Amino acid sequence: KIRQEFDVAGDPAQVWEFFHDVPSVAQCLPGAELHGQRDHGGYHGKLSARMGPISMSFDGEATVVFSEDERIATIEGTGVDSRGGSRGQVKVVCQVEPGVGTGTHVTVEADLLLSGAAAQFGRTGLIDEISRRLIGDFVTCLEAKIIAQPDVAATIQAPKPPGFSLLLHSLWAWLKGSGRRKARA
Question: What are phi and psi of 175, to 5 degrees?
Answer without folding.
Answer: -65, -40
